[in-house]
Structures are given as C-alpha cells and as structure tokens.
C-alpha cells in the first residue's frame, strides 16, 4: 500500500490537489495538518485507507481466478450459447439478420439486465471477427447512447442520489469532472462496468459528442470477446499468420485495459480519500 504522502497527493497534478496547504482546509500531505486535526482523525483516516485498499497480493492466489461458485455461470453460458447457435445461423442467412443481435445488445445494455457477453460470443461464432466486431460496435454504442439519455433526462435524480450516498460513484464522478475526455476514454478502456460509467458521464455534464467519442474509440476492447467466439467456431481455416496477428492485437488490448484499470483504481482511491477528508 502506498504511503500517506502518496495517497494525499503530494507531487500529484494540481487539478486534484492544492499545491500548498490551506490553513483552514483539510489535511494535505504527510505531517501537514489542518487546524484542529487530531490523532483520532489520523487514526480514522488510516482505517479508511486500509478498508478501501485492494489487496494486490490476492491476484497471486488461485481462488481469485477460479472459484467453485462461478462454474454454474460458465455452464449456464455454454448451454445458452449451444441453444442459441442454430438460431444465430438462421439469422445470418436472413438479409437483415444482423439487426437482431444489435437489438439484443441495445436491450441488454439497460441495468439491471446483463448477458451482453453471451450475445457477443454468438456474434463472433456466426459472423466472424471483423463483421462481428462491426455488429457488436453498433449494438453496444446504441445501447450506451440510449442509457446516456435515460440517465440524463429521466433518471437524473437517481444518479444524483447515488453520488450523495455511494462513495465509488462519487469518486468516479469527481475524477470524470476533473479529467474530461482523456479520463472518460481511460474509464471506457478499463473494466469499469458500462452501465455505471454511462450513468456518471450523463450526470456530470459531459456532452454527447465527448461521450460518443470516448465510447467509440474504446470499442476495440470488445474484440477480445468477439475473438473468443471466433475461436469457438474455428474450423482450422485460419492461417498461422492471421492467428499470430490476432493474438498480438488482443494481447495489446488486454495489457492496455489492465493499465487503465490500475490508473482508474489509483485515481478513485485518491479521490475517495479527499472526499472523506471534506466530510470529516
């Protein structure tokens, strides 16, 4: 875990932290205290940091990646894919069959519905990598755009309530307001749930053009799931050169996504601490 000076933002960009401590403001930096800051405040802060810290060492444990309770979902997904595959082949034979998975992706983009990954796998199985990617991009973008307008005009009150009561939502909203398009793009590239991110983007004042650019430019991360579908339907016709190129591209996407997850986690952790200090 990073030390207190790192968490407090010493040496970090000025847009997140004050360069100099305000005499009447919250504690800033290691061994720099506001008037009235007590040992009790310090201990409460350390407890807050420890409670919210992700244990990176857990990634080395097998249980983190393989859990018995997950096998039910793996089996269920396999059964659903096997059941829907003949229907998907039928869709491909129809002139406008590609519109059906697009419509399914739009519907499943609304919380609390889920299952987009199953549809994307089927698209990869039936339409292949690049046509499948185009279908997935269209369905995902239109679904997220519909969610954007839903939260912007009809569920804004609910989103504002979440920002008051949910510290993760509040932290994501804070870094999004401060970071603008670059931060929104990084959030989209990360593993942050699309429903969650879209709700935040819609309620922090982000315009539809910025939202659309961040969403569309981050679509390559969907290639990973599409390609898994392609592998499930692989009949041995893919050349060695194509396989190498595909694996290399997917490896880059995975590495970039992991880096984005780390960056967003770190930024949110700092933002949560600053929010906690303001409330304290």
TrEMBL record:
Domain VTT: 116-230
Protein's UniProt keywords contain Protein transport: no
GO cellular component, as recorded: Golgi membrane
Claim: Heme is one of the keywords in the record: no
Bias kind Basic and acidic residues: ranges: 15-31
Membrane topology value: Multi-pass membrane protein
Superkingdom of source: Eukaryota
Annotated segments matching region Disordered: 1-31
Compartments it resides in: Golgi apparatus membrane
TM ranges: 70-90, 96-113, 120-142, 181-201, 208-232, 244-265
Keywords: Golgi apparatus, Membrane, Transmembrane, Transmembrane helix
Function, in words: Golgi membrane protein involved in vesicular trafficking and spindle migration.
Family indicated by similarity: Belongs to the TVP38/TMEM64 family.
Protein's name in the database: Golgi apparatus membrane protein TVP38
Organism field: Dioszegia hungarica
Taxonomic lineage: Eukaryota, Fungi, Dikarya, Basidiomycota, Agaricomycotina
């Amino acid at each position: 875990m990073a030390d207190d000076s790192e968490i407090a933002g010493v040496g970090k960009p000025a847009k997140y932290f004050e360069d100099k401590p305000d005499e009447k403001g919250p504690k800033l930096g290691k061994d720099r205290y506001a008037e009235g800051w007590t040992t009790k405040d310090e201990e409460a802060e350390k407890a807050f940091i420890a409670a919210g810290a992700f244990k990176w060492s857990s990634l080395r444990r097998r249980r983190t990646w393989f859990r018995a309770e997950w096998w039910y979902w793996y089996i269920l997904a396999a059964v659903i894919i096997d059941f829907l595959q003949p229907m998907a082949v039928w869709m491909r034979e129809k002139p406008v069959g590609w519109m059906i998975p697009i419509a399914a992706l739009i519907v499943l983009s609304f919380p609390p519905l889920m299952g987009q990954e199953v549809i994307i796998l089927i698209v990869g199985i039936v339409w292949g990598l690049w046509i499948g990617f185009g279908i997935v991009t269209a369905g995902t973008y239109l679904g997220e755009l519909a969610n954007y307008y839903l939260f912007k005009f009809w569920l804004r009150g609910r989103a504002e309530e979440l920002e008051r009561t949910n510290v993760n939502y509040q932290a994501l909203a804070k870094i999004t307001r401060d970071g603008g398009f670059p931060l929104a793009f990084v959030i989209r590239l990360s593993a942050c749930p699309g429903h969650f991110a879209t709700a935040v983007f819609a309620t922090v004042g982000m315009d539809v053009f910025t939202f659309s650019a961040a969403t569309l430019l981050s679509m390559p991360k969907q290639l990973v799931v599409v390609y898994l579908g392609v592998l499930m339907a692989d009949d041995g016709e893919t050349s060695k050169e194509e396989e190498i190129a595909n694996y290399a591209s997917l490896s880059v996407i995975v590495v970039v996504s992991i880096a984005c997850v780390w960056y967003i986690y770190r930024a949110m952790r700092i933002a949560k601490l600053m929010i906690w200090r303001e409330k304290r």
